[in-house]
Every structure is written in structure tokens, then in C-alpha cells.
């Protein structure tokens, strides 16, 4: 341990190497609190690429595992410590190095907070679309680590679509540059895309070249109340089938609506079975919303309330963004992240209701409905062993249901520790073996975020 700390201090300022166990313990976990975490040996806060390279060279020399961390808002245990590891926090590398309006790109360090990049791009008439609900705290490095999504994916896609190039420190300290600054480029294998979503298991992202888009017109939203989640899901499919491209299509069930009202008194309709939020940022959002509202009514919506202006629309979005935090107040929660084809959304959500009944648990659901990406939130009492066991079983049953419906065990939160056992089931033996060989090519000693993903 003292060898490790001494070696790290040869290339890092004294204050950037933290061994105080009270401080290192506070960095052990991300927001998936029920996942196990080990005891880190040391926590480091590099602020240059060279310092990160020194950390990785030291780790390789002494064969010490390294766990990269952003803001630790992850929901899969991906940033959790393993015993004896170096926790490598990238939050101090938080500079926006360049915003280039002609080429519509931003070059950033990994610790830049998502919303700060959006605001900086906004000053140039540009936007960085991926917008996880945690956008005021999560980092671009973490977003790249998990290939995160958000509320706008139904129109603008996920982080994967916006990463053009990466600077990555490999396990042995070498610096790899992938990708490009150009609008097009197909030279060689697409290592950029491979690294996005690799959850810190293949390399440490120390720089990213990101695509920006022109700022769209302000979005206008509506809220539609439905007597059942099935009716709301049918409306989602009908809006898409009719050829509309909303900038957001989110679903909240009764449990999540009530939880948000209890947390923030947002005045959402408490008694509704399902609340659908639809927004457009088109040239004529009023007309598009009216058409979507009619489709909702035709599919059984009991009330359709368009927001008066973009400020009121933002309030509705705020309510949706608060929903995971709000459900956290109901008990200990396990947040699932199963995505299914949009056409299977109704079957997925009614299947989750059956699972809740079977295991006698409260399971609230919010969904990026336009993407078919559900977040069933299993609420349980962690002090009750029987209920905890049922919660875990129900969590597994939800993933099995998602796979049966042609979906995936994770739409945007990643595999981390939480879903490792389920990955083999989704990939199959051939895919799993090939992924293991890819991991070994990047990290032959198995030092990068061991025990995560594979
Ligand atoms: C209230 C709430 C709402 C959320 N809403 C959404 C949502 O709408 N959509 C969504 O996709 N997620 C959402 N999340 C999950 C989480 O915010 C995202 O996964 C986010 O991308 C994590 O970013 P982070 O900076 O916190 O990363 P961390 O949690 O610190 O790390 C995430 C993963 O990336 C790796 N990593 C971090 N930095 C680097 C780096 N520089 N190089 C290599 N690997 C790295 C870590 O090892 C880990 O595996 C939500 C979470 C909360 C708490």
C-alpha cells in the first residue's frame, strides 16, 4: 500500500492522492446503493492527461486494479470500488477545451458536467442533445462510459450518436486517439463506438470530441391522462405510426406520479393510471401537439392538457426528471432499465404489473416510452430479508420478461455489477467469448474495472 501511494505521489500533487479511509469510503459507490462495493486502497484526482497516464503506469507496475469514476450517479454499480483498487476520479478534469460552431463540435475533458456543456454550446446557438435526467450532475466521461440516454432520445438518439473521437489512456498508460473531427470517416474499425458504453473496462477516457447540433426551437409539451398504461402505450405507437417525431415521449404510472407530487407538489393528476408527456420542438409545435392530442383522445385519454408555453412545458419535464429521486423516498429501490421494441411496450408494462402482484411488492414504472425503454422501480424494505429476496427475484423476472419480448436487459444504465450475470443470457456463448477476447486485447492483466460487465 505505501509502495503504491509513494509511486502515485511521484507523478501527482500530494493533495490529489487521498488515503484518508473516511474520504475514500465516501467514494466507494455509485447510486445503485444495494450493489456490493470493496474497500479502495487510494483515491486519486488527476487533473491532466499525463497524471492519468502516471496512475495507469503505476497500477500496471504494481498490478493494482483501477476503477474510473465520474460523478457516481450511475445506477448499475459500475463505478463501485473493488478491494485494494485505485479509485480514479476524473471530476477535476472538467474543462471545455473548444466549441467550434463551423464544424459543430465540442472538445471536452471527461469531468465536464453534461448540463454545463449544453449551456456552453447554447451560447453559440448549438446544443449537445443527450440529456440524462441526472444532467445537472453527471459527467461526459460517465455518459460515455455508460452510453447514456435521456429524455430526448426518441428524436435525437443517445450518447453513442454524438461521440466522434476519444482520447483514451490504456491500462499500460499508453495514450490512444480514436475517431475524428470530421463529419464523416470510416478509416479502420470503429474503436470509438466500441469504447462508448464500455463502462471503464477498456480504457480511461481523458478527452472527447463531440458532435453538436443547432439549437432547436423551444419545445412545447402536453400531458395526457389515461385510464390504463395499455391505452397510453397504444397512443405512443399510434403517434409514431402516424409519422410524427416528438422530441420527447415519456410515461409515468400512478406510483411515480404520486411520488413526484409527494416530493415536489407538482400538481400532477394523482388518480391517473398513466400520464403521457409528449413534446415537439418542430417549427409548428402547436399544430403537432394538437394532432398528437387527438391521437391520445382517440386511444382513450380522459384529459389532454397542452402546456401554455415553454416554461410550463419545462415544468412537466422537471416532474418527469424528478421521478427516480421521488421514488427513492418510498423505500429502498432497485431501478431496472429494460428496453423492448416500442410495439411491445404495453406487454412489458402489464407484465411488470403482474410481477409486482406475484411478488407482493410495489413496482413503479417510468418509461422513455418513445424508445420502449422502461424503468421499473422495485420498492422494498431492505431491513426485511424476505422482502429483499422477493425484490431481487422480481428484478430478475423483469429482465427475463424483457428478453422474452425481444428486448435488452439495459437500455442506458449499463451492466456494471448489477446485471453481469444476465449479460451472458443476452449475448449468448459466441458473443460473450468474443467480448472477453476484446477485453483481453485492451487490458491483458485485467486491471481496468475488474468484475464489471463481463
Ligand atoms: C436521478 C437519476 C436520473 C438518471 N437518469 C438517467 C437517464 O435519464 N438516462 C441515463 O442514461 N442515465 C440516467 N441516470 C444514470 C446516470 O446518471 C448515468 O449513467 C450517467 O451517465 C453516469 O454519469 P457519471 O458521471 O455519474 O458516471 P459514474 O456513475 O461515475 O460512472 C459510470 C460508468 O462510467 C465509467 N466511467 C466514468 N468516467 C469514466 C471515464 N472518464 N473513462 C472511462 N470510464 C468512465 C465508470 O467506471 C462507470 O462504469 C440517472 C441517475 C440518477 C441518479
From TrEMBL:
Pfam family, one: FAD_binding_4
Domain FAD-binding PCMH-type: 36-215
Keyword check for Translocase: no
Keywords: FAD, Flavoprotein, Oxidoreductase
SUPFAM superfamilies: FAD-binding/transporter-associated domain-like, FAD-linked oxidases, C-terminal domain
Co-factor(s): FAD
Keyword Oxidoreductase: yes
The protein, known as: FAD-binding oxidoreductase
Taxonomic source organism: Streptacidiphilus alkalitolerans
Amino acid at each position: 500500500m505505501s509502495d503504491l501511494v509513494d509511486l502515485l505521489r511521484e507523478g501527482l500533487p500530494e493533495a490529489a492522492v487521498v488515503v484518508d479511509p473516511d474520504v475514500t469510503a465516501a467514494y466507494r459507490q455509485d447510486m445503485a446503493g444495494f450493489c456490493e462495493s470493496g474497500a479502495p486502497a487510494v483515491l486519486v484526482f488527476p487533473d491532466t492527461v499525463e497524471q492519468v497516464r502516471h496512475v495507469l503506469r503505476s497500477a500496471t507496475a504494481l498490478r493494482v486494479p483501477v476503477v474510473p469514476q465520474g460523478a457516481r450517479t450511475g445506477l448499475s454499480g459500475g463505478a463501485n470500488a473493488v478491494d485494494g483498487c485505485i479509485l480514479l476520479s476524473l471530476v477535476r478534469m472538467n474543462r471545455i477545451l473548444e466549441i467550434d460552431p463551423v464544424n459543430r463540435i465540442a472538445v471536452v475533458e471527461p469531468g465536464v458536467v453534461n448540463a454545463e456543456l449544453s449551456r456552453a454550446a447554447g451560447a453559440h446557438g448549438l446544443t449537445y442533445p443527450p440529456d440524462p435526467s441526472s444532467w445537472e450532475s453527471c459527467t461526459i466521461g460517465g455518459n460515455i462510459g455508460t452510453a447514456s440516454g435521456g429524455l430526448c432520445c426518441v428524436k435525437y438518439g443517445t450518447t453513442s450518436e454524438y461521440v466522434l473521437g476519444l482520447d483514451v489512456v490504456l491500462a499500460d498508460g499508453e495514450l490512444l486517439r480514436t475517431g475524428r473531427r470530421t463529419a464523416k470517416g470510416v478509416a479502420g474499425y470503429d474503436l470509438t463506438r466500441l469504447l462508448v458504453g464500455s463502462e471503464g473496462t477498456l480504457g480511461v477516457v481523458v478527452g472527447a470530441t463531440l458532435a453538436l447540433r443547432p439549437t432547436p426551437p423551444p419545445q412545447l409539451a402536453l400531458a395526457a391522462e389515461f385510464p390504463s398504461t395499455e391505452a397510453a402505450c397504444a397512443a405512443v405507437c399510434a403517434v409514431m405510426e402516424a409519422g410524427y417525431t416528438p422530441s420527447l415521449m415519456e410515461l409515468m404510472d400512478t406510483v411515480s406520479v404520486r411520488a413526484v407530487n409527494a416530493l415536489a407538489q407538482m400538481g400532477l393528476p394523482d388518480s391517473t393510471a398513466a400520464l403521457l408527456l409528449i413534446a415537439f420542438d418542430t417549427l409548428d409545435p402547436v399544430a403537432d401537439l394538437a394532432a398528437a392530442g387527438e391521437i391520445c383522445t382517440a386511444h382513450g385519454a380522459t384529459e389532454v392538457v397542452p402546456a401554455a408555453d415553454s416554461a410550463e412545458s419545462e415544468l412537466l419535464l422537471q416532474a418527469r426528471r424528478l421521478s427516480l429521486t421521488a421514488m427513492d423516498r418510498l423505500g429502498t429501490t432497485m431501478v431496472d432499465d429494460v428496453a423492448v421494441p416500442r410495439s411491445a411496450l404495453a406487454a412489458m408494462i402489464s407484465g411488470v404489473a403482474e410481477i409486482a402482484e406475484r411478488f407482493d411488492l410495489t413496482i413503479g414504472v417510468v418509461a422513455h416510452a418513445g424508445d420502449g425503454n422502461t424503468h421499473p422501480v422495485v420498492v422494498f424494505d431492505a431491513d426485511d430479508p424476505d422482502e429483499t429476496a422477493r425484490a431481487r427475484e422480481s428484478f430478475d423476472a423483469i429482465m427475463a420478461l424483457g428478453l422474452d419480448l425481444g428486448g435488452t436487459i439495459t437500455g442506458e444504465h449499463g451492466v456494471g455489477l448489477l446485471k453481469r450475470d444476465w449479460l451472458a443470457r443476452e449475448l449468448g456463448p459466441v458473443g460473450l467469448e468474443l467480448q472477453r477476447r476484446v477485453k483481453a486485447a485492451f487490458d491483458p492483466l485485467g486491471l481496468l474495472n475488474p468484475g464489471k460487465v463481463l
